[in-house]
Automatic annotation (TrEMBL):
<feature type="domain" description="Type II secretion system protein GspF">
    <location>
        <begin position="219"/>
        <end position="340"/>
    </location>
</feature>
<dbReference type="GO" id="GO:0005886">
    <property type="term" value="C:plasma membrane"/>
</dbReference>
<keyword id="KW-0812">Transmembrane</keyword>
<dbReference type="InterPro" id="IPR042094">
    <property type="entry name" value="T2SS_GspF_sf"/>
</dbReference>
<feature type="transmembrane region" description="Helical">
    <location>
        <begin position="321"/>
        <end position="339"/>
    </location>
</feature>
<feature type="transmembrane region" description="Helical">
    <location>
        <begin position="160"/>
        <end position="182"/>
    </location>
</feature>
<protein>
    <submittedName>
        <fullName>Type II secretion system F family protein</fullName>
    </submittedName>
</protein>
<comment type="similarity">
    <text>Belongs to the GSP F family.</text>
</comment>
<keyword id="KW-1003">Cell membrane</keyword>
<dbReference type="InterPro" id="IPR003004">
    <property type="entry name" value="GspF/PilC"/>
</dbReference>
<feature type="domain" description="Type II secretion system protein GspF">
    <location>
        <begin position="43"/>
        <end position="135"/>
    </location>
</feature>
<dbReference type="InterPro" id="IPR018076">
    <property type="entry name" value="T2SS_GspF_dom"/>
</dbReference>
<dbReference type="Pfam" id="PF00482">
    <property type="entry name" value="T2SSF"/>
</dbReference>
<keyword id="KW-1133">Transmembrane helix</keyword>
<keyword id="KW-0472">Membrane</keyword>
<feature type="transmembrane region" description="Helical">
    <location>
        <begin position="113"/>
        <end position="134"/>
    </location>
</feature>
Length: 352
């Protein structure tokens, strides 16, 4: 009954299904009637969920068994909804979360298409110079009886650029493979999970984005669970169980243990390295005023706005930086193209 292929219905299905659940319709009937805009893979996945429900599984458990692919925040929303009996509202929240992610993804690709097109044109120009212009210059030199010895830059421009390009690609692939390996091992080892935190923090902008994304995710999960009526220790336990980083799980578990031992929310919070010191006073005020979930969601929204702003600034810097590098590369190619012409003119003038 388990579906091996991962699937995820569109955000519109989640909102439509959630609204029907709020109106009192049975979840089994809602899932069985997939509705318009659902592809074959999604239909098979929903049938698999329905099969697990009929077998007696809970809703979240059935979705996991059917290989439903959702972000961590969405699973927390669904768990909170199932725990408090507000699964319809949770499905609507998941739909809104997926809609926002899709909007951010479209905005990112919309900003990157122009640099990508410029890069393709630049690579095309470089390929023409390397594979057509330089051989033509060599043939012209031979036909004039001036030998086939071209200037060093013209002769080795292909190897030079090829070596630089290969080196950059190799470094990127090695860095990506190394970071992916650390993340994979970090799911089982707290030390490697902490190593991921240290490595990400070494990068000025990317490290800040990494920490803000994590803090926004944790605060939104906790705020959503608390808003649904879940006690703080239980909410910390659920968030820790949904985390894919062993170090993060241990820190949340240590936070929960401190609360259960009566150390107080403020002391336990300040001892947890997962939260930025800037937002801790606000969380303390929220705890004292009885509006902790509201402050958590507010800080999470602020962190998400900071992340969106940082990503927008990075994408804006990519275009001029890419154009600068591409201009330098094409300038070198043009220089390599002009050098043999100057030599040919000098040698032709000396022949007369």
């Amino acid at each position: 009954m388990r579906q091996n292929r991962h699937f995820c219905p569109k955000w519109s299905w989640w909102i439509r299904a959630g609204e029907r659940a709020v109106l009192g319709l049975e979840l089994g009937h809602i899932i069985g009637a997939a509705g318009p805009g659902v592809g074959p893979a999604e239909r098979n996945g929903l049938k698999c969920i329905l099969g697990h429900l009929n077998a007696g599984s809970g809703m979240v458990e059935a979705m996991r068994e059917a290989s439903l692919c959702l972000p961590v925040e969405a699973w927390s929303l669904l768990q909170a909804g199932e725990h408090t009996g507000k699964f319809g509202e949770a499905m609507c929240d998941v739909g809104e979360l997926l809609r926002q992610q899709e909007a951010r993804r479209r905005a990112f690709f919309g900003q990157m298409w122009y640099p990508a097109m410029v890069g393709l044109v630049g690579i095309g120009v470089m390929a023409i110079i390397l594979f057509w212009v330089v051989p033509q210059m060599r043939e012209l030199s031979e036909s004039m009886g001036l030998g086939d010895n071209l200037p060093w830059l013209t002769e080795h421009i292909g190897q030079l650029y090829g070596g630089i390009f290969s080196g950059i690609i190799t470094l990127l692939l090695l860095g990506l493979a190394g970071f992916s390996l650390i993340r994979l091992i970090g799911k089982r080892s707290a030390k490697w999970g902490y190593l991921e935190e240290v490595i990400a923090g070494r990068f000025p902008v990317a490290g800040s984005v990494f920490r803000h994304v994590r803090e926004a995710r944790l605060l939104r999960q906790l705020g959503t669970l608390l808003q649904a009526g879940t006690p703080i220790p239980r909410a910390l336990e659920m968030v820790a169980a949904s985390s894919s980083n062993r170090w993060e799980q241990e820190e949340l578990t240590r936070f929960r243990s401190s609360l259960l031992m009566g150390m107080g929310f403020s002391v336990s919070l300040r001892a947890c390295p997962l939260f930025d010191e800037e937002g801790i006073p606000l969380l303390e005020v929220g705890q004292e005023s009885g509006k902790l979930e509201s402050f958590m969601l507010r800080i999470a929204a602020g962190r998400e706005e900071e992340v969106a702003w940082a990503i927008a600034q990075i994408t804006r810097l990519v275009e001029p930086l890419f154009l600068f590098v591409l201009s330098g590369a094409i300038g070198g190619m043009v220089l390599a193209y002009l050098l043999p012409m100057v030599r040919l003119l000098e040698q032709a003038g000396g022949a007369f």
